[in-house]
Every structure is written in structure tokens, then in C-alpha cells.
Amino acid sequence: MFNFKVHQELTCVAEGSGHFFARVGAMVASKGSFKAEKVLLDTNQNRSILNSVINLAARKLTGENIPIMKVDGNGLYYMANSAQHVSIITLQNGQSIGVEGENLLAFTEDCKYGVRFIGTGVISQKGMFTSKLTALNHNAQVAITTDGNPLILETPCVVDPDAVICWTGPDPSFRTDVSWKTFIGQTSGETYFLEFNNPGEVVIVQPCERAGSGLNIAID
Question: Pfam families given for it (predicted)?
């Protein structure tokens, strides 16, 4: 069994033995004996070939299909992505996390991996789908990356959909703040939000909006 921890903010270290899953190319160093191979269909064990193909198709069609590799071995395995900051989320049995595919770095073997529809990203760069990982046992772990030090919030809270990275618990609702001023370019530009209302969950945002983000409605 592997345990994830953050090393000097920018690196995830997987320590232990057995196997885990990571995005292809994440490894920057290792100490011990490891073998990595690309996952062709599905990371989920005990799933039929048909269901694995359906899961792969769903990830490809929704744009949440990042290349994943299975890492077997024992020792220390160091992972990073473009010098981004790394955070580790620990999930309890049955708990789920929604995370942007581009920000998913690694997850332990006891996570079920798939996608889910959230339908709140029509006018932002957030997208209408997100990757979903569900813990099959206690202390399952997911490693995510952010541009800059992450802001970790406890719900309830409201966040910018172009800065959100991941959240535990139910999906958010979509809220807008559109008035006549929006159409003449007299607002702050903060016209739409994701609203998390279920208490006691966690939302992680980064101090950087995705490129090309925002709703631009105005009359010049």
C-alpha cells in the first residue's frame, strides 16, 4: 500500500509497496524498484471489459481523459507537473471528489475513477464535466496540482468557476449576477459563480484563473 505526501510544495512522494496510478510523465525521480505501464482502458478493478470501454469513451468524449499509468513497485516515487504546487486530499470510505482532469496528478489504488456531468460550465472555461474519484476504503488519497499556493475553503462558500480545482461532496449550483449594467460593460466582471451549500465539505481553488476565462457581455 502506498501513502502520498507533499515534498517541498512542488512534489508528491508515493512511499510504500504495491501499486498506484499517476498521470503519464509525472515521475521525476525514484528510489527503489518500480515499473510503470500506460493504462489502456480503465483503472478500476473487477470491472467488465464493456464497462471499461464505456468509461474510457466517457472520459474521451468529455475531455477528461488524461493519460494514466499504473505504477508497480516499492520504495519512494517522486512526481510533479510543470513546477505546480501539489496538495494531497485524503478521502474516507464512500467519499467522492470532483477534480479537473488537467489538475489530477495521482491517486491510490483504492479510488474508483470516472467522470460526472455537472452542467455548470457553459459560459466559463470550467467545462460541463469533471473527473470523479470515489474512495473504496478508508484513507484513499488523491494528489492534485495548482498554479500557485492553493486556497482551501470549507463549505458553504462561493467560488469562481475558472479558478476552482476540486471539491468534496455534492456538486455546486450555478449562480449569476447579471443586470443591465452587465450589458453596458459597467460591472466588475464577476458575474457568475459556483455555490457550494453543503456544510463541512472542502473546496480548493488556485490563485489563477484559466486562460480565456470569463463572461464578456457588453455594448461598446
Answer: AIM24
